[in-house]
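Task: complex structure prediction.
Instruction: return structure tokens for all chains below.
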Amino acid sequence: MGLVIDGEPATALAGDTLLTAVLTNGRQLRVSEFGDGARAGFCLMGACQDCWVYTEDGDRLRACSTPVAEGMRIVTKGATWPRLG
Amino acid sequence: MAAPRVVIVGAGPAGVRAAERLVAAGLRPTVVDEGMRAGGQIYRQQPPGFTRRPEELYGTEAGRAVAVHGAFAALAGRIDYLPETLAWNIEPGLLHVARDGVARKLPYDAVILATGATDRLLPVPGWTRAGVYSLGGSQVSLKAQACAIGARVAFLGTGPLLYLVASQYLKAGVEVAAVLDTSPASARFKALPLMASRPGLLVKGAALMWKLRGVPILRGVTPLAIDGDDSGVTGIRVKDAGGREHRFAADAVAMGWHLRPETQLADLAGVPFEHDALSGLWMAQVQADGRTAVKGVYLAGDGARILGADGAEIAGTLAATSVLADHGIQVPVAEVVELIGRRAVMDRFRRGLLRAFPWPGHLAAAVPDDTLLCRCEAITAGELRRSASDLGAPEVNRAKALTRVGMGRCQGRYCGPAGQEILAAARGVALPEVGRLRGQAPVKPLSIATVVPLGVEDA
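Output:
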């Protein structure tokens, strides 16, 4: 499957979570909003919320429980302002 | 009497067995599952298209996993199954759920909360680095994604899961750098009388240790730090029982100290809590048959008491029999007596495990001031201590208001147990005196747009 991570084309396997897709393309998933560095998820079961990434449109996704889909466009560095509506 | 409307939250072993028992009595329960497919975390199913056999996925528990999945599949058409649905609040007679950004309310006469558990964590300097995962999460990664968290993994914590996951990684071809257990070796022998209640499990434990031969195993360790650089983990340092420092190179660390029950919904439903001195955890008050002090609210599985997957199956069936009996539907007395007897054996073993692998509250209390306690908002242990020393916070909810520890997006799941120890030690009081973080709705983050729109459809 093809997706775009931070503007760069990447590939993933059907059945991958978004977290797996990002981490098979690099060592980190996102950057802590509180200035303490790189994160790569933690609980992997939807409880810690330490794997949030955003779509280019600003929708928030919990990477550990979101299946990757063809053509996804993901932002992991410096979140887009969240879409509120 | 009209058939009671029963909602079950959770589709792990407890939820599945509860649904099965209710269907057997002619009811049509609704099952709310945050997962995509039934099984819960322990019997998590791999995505469609993955072809590993149950024996590869679940090891010695393959038979049980297949049985639970089969039991759930057999309920198709006789239950209302709501996958990928979060139960995020509860009020008398109404469960609030959300799926795909759409909220709705499910009316119930009885609700069985089979919400499971998550890993209990202890902050260690460096535990927020990329490449550090919870033990349970490390297992989920193998089971559900066929991925290891690293190529050379160190395991830190205590409890049977520590050794189990390490052996599963070894079997998957991953290099296990070390198994670092905070429990002293001597604790295991003291716990033998209680653990003898399930000799089969002791044999499985011995087999597990045989699989791990050749792997460095240290007991009675004090974690010092998880080292790393900008891109992730490079190693882990501990002090052994004799005070000698050891460093193990690793590119990932899995850590966990048993499990903690997911009790937020029980809390919001008004179920009273009690402090369990053996585990150091606050638990919802629940009878062996799943009944609580709140009419219509029942608890089952690890969300009630950490009895393990097979104990959860028993507790699920038991809670269902209680629901039936409370609605005038006959349940054979012998069935309940037998289930309660089997549950008691599980509970005895649970107490043995907690003695063999004790929660190291003293290590939590001694976490260095500059260590991040709150992963969500990067708040240090020292800041929590100062809320006690400088600001006089008498208990954890006040400390949360002052420091935001427990207010972040995990809502205290990962900082809560250690935070209690830190605050109690800083105040010089016994652990129960600093209380517990109260559950708040939504129990997991929701988009504001899910909750706010007017005219939310009632089910």
